[in-house]
Write a structure and sequence with these properties.
Layout: H1 14-41, H2 46-54, H3 73-86, H4 88-108, H5 111-122, E1 128-131, E2 147-151, E3 154-165, E4 172-178, E5 188-194, E6 200-205, E7 216-227, E8 231-232, H6 238-274, E9 276-277, E10 280-281, H7 286-316, H8 324-349, H9 351-354, H10 360-368, H11 377-389
Parallel strand pairs: 1-4
Antiparallel strand pairs: 2-3, 3-7, 4-5, 5-8, 6-7, 9-10
Helix pairs in contact: 1-3, 3-4, 3-6, 3-7, 4-5, 4-6, 6-7, 6-8, 6-10, 7-8, 8-10, 8-11
The structure holds acetoacetyl-coenzyme A.
Length: 392
């Protein structure tokens, strides 16, 4: 297989190469051998997630003073891609921790919140989650029903959230609730809630097609009281926070999709080189070789879009500009590439691709969610088209 020339591009610094190699070594040595077992059992991989924290992978962009590795977004996507190549579950836990939890606190938190709520999550001691979705509010996120009411120096939280990645294992959750429903999206506020707070419990575990060990659940709030100091940003700022954070989240998911696609691609090339039919290696037949060519082409195009989005985020750091369109394009293309490549991988493997004895069926199941969570492909298209046309 031809290594990507992208790896020699000048925007890769020694630091980028170092984290990419460290993530690759760790993922192949520690995660790949246990991925199928956890997929089968659905058991959350506490031990390896903890080790990822020790390696600095759980808060890559967070400054060292708040417990992170203080690297840039390209470093983050390079590491995430390697983890995803070994396992979809580990990579979504890493993505949510970095993008949806740590970035939100870093960008919108007070100094006290950064000291008290960010440090342990960025260092991987604890696990962070992000809770926006509700049973009746998914793509149309502004229609949430959960309510937070101010009562003196506290807020009282009530409602049911759903599809929360790491929900049952997270110690810290950024949750979005309506504080003034008349103001619609301008009446949404963000809060940080910690596990063990009375009135806050994980609900039903969501049974899933893929990323099975990633512990996804409902979160239930029943007169849950939290101090005003746990409000993230101002009252009414929640929707903006949710959307800003999702721009970063979508870059993470695009890297996850790319990593899963690469794993399926490499397995397919190896299989096409070994498997024989009609007296030839199957890779010698045009039917298979053209699939390989299309898979490779789409993967390399996706890689450029993922890196472009990461570089756009870094470039916008000091200007305050938005990189919403770059993130949406990367997420849309990488996730659809991942679904295409993993589907073709099963086809190349034939019956073996449908068997649990080979990993490609897991890659196929894991890739599908990248077209759904953190904004479906339809939502990404809507975001891109709105920004391009100015029409709604
Ligand atoms: N950054 C900053 N602000 C943004 C923004 C962004 N990316 N996108 C929108 N906004 C702002 C707008 O500027 C606007 O602000 P003003 O009112 O001040 O003008 C405000 O937000 C409302 O914007 P819209 O009118 O565009 O809002 P909308 O109701 O039409 O919805 C949407 C827009 C893009 C469809 C949004 O609802 C959306 O992204 N939906 C998908 C939700 C989603 O991705 N959910 C996944 C949850 S996480 C998850 O998957 C689980 C997990 O654990 C992994």
């Amino acid at each position: 297989m031809t290594p990507s020339i992208m790896q020699t591009f000048t925007y890769y610094t020694d630091e980028h190469k170092m984290i990419q190699q460290a993530a690759r070594d760790f993922a192949q040595k520690e995660i790949a051998p246990i991925a199928a077992e956890h997929d089968e059992s659905g058991e959350f991989p506490h031990e390896t997630i903890k080790k990822m924290g020790e390696m600095g992978f759980m808060g890559i962009e967070v400054p060292e003073k708040y417990g992170g590795a203080e690297m840039d977004t390209l470093a983050y996507v390079l590491a995430l891609e390697e983890i995803a190549k070994a396992d979809g579950t580990h990579s979504v836990v890493m993505s949510v921790n970095n993008s949806l939890f740590c970035y939100g606190i870093l960008e919108f938190g007070t100094e006290e919140q950064k000291q008290n709520q960010l440090r342990d999550v960025a260092s991987g001691e604890k696990i962070g989650a992000y809770s926006l979705t509700e049973p009746m509010s998914g793509s149309d996120a502004a229609t949430m029903q959960s309510r937070a009411t101010r009562d003196g120096s506290e807020y009282v939280l009530n409602g049911r959230k759903s599809w929360v990645t790491s929900g049952p294992v997270a110690t810290h959750v950024v949750v979005f609730m309506m504080t003034d429903s008349e103001k619609k999206h301008k009446g949404i506020t963000a809060f940080i809630v910690t596990a063990g707070t009375p009135g806050f419990t994980p609900g039903k575990i969501e049974p899933k097609l893929g990323i099975k060990a990633s512990a996804t659940s409902e979160l239930l709030f029943d007169n849950c009281r939290i101090p005003v100091e746990n409000r993230l940003g101002e009252e009414g700022e929640g929707f903006k926070i949710a959307m800003t954070v999702l721009d970063v989240g979508r870059i993470g998911i695009s890297a996850q999709a790319l990593g899963i696609a690469e794993a399926a691609y490499e397995a397919s090339v190896a299989y096409a080189q070994e498997r024989e039919a009609f007296g030839k290696k199957i890779g010698q037949f045009q039917g298979i070789s053209f699939k390989i060519a299309d898979m490779k082409t789409r993967i390399e195009a996706a890689r450029m879009l993922v890196h472009r989005a990461a570089l756009a985020k870094t470039a916008c750091k000091d200007t305050g500009e938005r990189y919403t369109i770059e993130a949406a394009i990367a997420k849309l293309y990488a996730s659809e590439t991942s679904r295409f490549v993993t589907n073709e991988a099963i086809q190349i493997h034939g019956g073996m691709g449908y068997s649990k004895e080979y990993p490609v069926e897991r890659y196929f199941r894991d890739s599908k969610i990248t077209e759904i969570y953190e904004g479906t492909s339809e939502i990404q298209r809507m975001v891109i088209a709105r920004l391009e046309t100015g029409l709604r």
